[in-house]
Design a protein that fits this description.
single chain; about 100 residues; mainly beta; 3-stranded antiparallel sheet; about 0% helix; extended
Length: about 100
């Protein structure tokens, strides 16, 4: 299975496209820094996510969100593998419901 998220969102399996249904959110991924030393590399960047106005969002999902990420890669026999992947939102945590 292949899932492409940069540009148009596409998914493919068994040589053909998979239906995604409904309006898909706009995504932007910007790698700001990429550094490598020997068998390890680190990728730091920012991301942004926005649902189209007509989209039915999951309950509690914000219409727009952005944040930062860090990915640590390791080279295993000539293949770069994602070892750790951390994503954080710029939005604050929701406040707990008031006690009644």
């Amino acid at each position: 299975m292949w899932i492409r998220i940069l540009g148009a969102l596409e998914a493919e399996a068994d040589g053909g496209p998979l239906p995604l249904g409904g309006p898909v959110p706009r995504r932007l991924l910007a790698a700001l820094t990429l550094g490598a030393s020997g068998p390890m590399a680190v990728d730091l960047g920012r991301w942004q996510f926005a649902w189209p106005a007509a989209a039915k969002r999951p309950p509690g999902a914000p219409a727009v969100d952005s944040g930062k990420y860090i990915v640590r890669w390791v080279n295993d026999s000539g293949h770069w593998l994602m070892a750790q992947d951390i994503w954080n939102s710029d939005l604050g945590m929701p406040l707990p419901a008031p006690h009644k």
